[in-house]
């Protein structure tokens, strides 16, 4: 069974108590830190393909990169957004800049047939599945350097 689910570092931890303890301590140590630079991705599977819906609101199509390398699909985007609001004597300014990136394994994907379209802040990537390989027939492999032994006759004694 193949999967397109992105790599999850936390899934590799053997001790469930570590995850529990970490979940209690994470908010304390992350106070004041900005949110990690990433984007949301939905993965849908059909019998013929996987479909990724990558949310990239406010990102220009020219700032999006989609590439395959070493059997991985990498979606990355340069984000440069700024929002200003003014309400009664209060000025609010928020900027978000940087590069976001996510990678997905391409096991079982026909990499030459991948397509993508960007519309209304959502990048839709279609990953066609490879046709299942036919099972190979059994074959006998000759061993060199060994002379064939004559068949023993069980009737001769």
How many DSSP E strands?
7
Report on the biggest sheet: 4 strands, antiparallel
Strand order of the largest sheet: 1-2-7-6
Summarize model confidence as the mean pLDDT. Answer: 76
What structural class results from the helix and strand content? mainly beta
Determine and state the CATH class: Mainly Beta
Q: How many distinct domains?
A: 1
Helix content: under 10%
CATH A-level architecture = Sandwich
Termini gap: 56 Å
Helical stretch tally:
1
Shape from CA axes? rod-shaped
For this structure, the CATH topology is: Immunoglobulin-like
Topology diagram in text:
Layout: H1 16-29, E1 41-45, E2 49-55, E3 64-69, E4 72-87, E5 90-105, E6 115-119, E7 122-128
Antiparallel strand pairs: 1-2, 2-7, 3-4, 4-5, 6-7
């Amino acid at each position: 069974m193949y999967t397109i689910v992105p790599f999850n570092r936390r899934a590799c931890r053997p001790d469930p108590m570590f995850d529990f303890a970490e979940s209690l301590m994470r908010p304390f140590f992350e106070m004041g830190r900005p949110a990690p630079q990433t984007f949301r991705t939905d993965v849908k599977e059909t019998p013929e393909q996987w479909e990724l819906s990558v949310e990239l609101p406010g990102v220009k199509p020219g700032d999006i990169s989609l590439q395959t390398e070493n059997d991985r699909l990498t979606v990355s985007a340069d984000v440069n957004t700024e929002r200003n609001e003014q309400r009664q004597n209060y000025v609010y300014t928020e900027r978000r800049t940087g590069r976001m990136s996510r990678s997905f394994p391409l096991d079982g994907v026909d990499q030459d047939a991948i397509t993508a379209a960007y519309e209304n802040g959502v990048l839709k990537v279609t990953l066609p599945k490879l046709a299942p390989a036919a099972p190979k027939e059994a074959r006998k492999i000759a061993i060199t350097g060994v002379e064939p032994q004559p068949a023993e006759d069980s009737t001769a004694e």
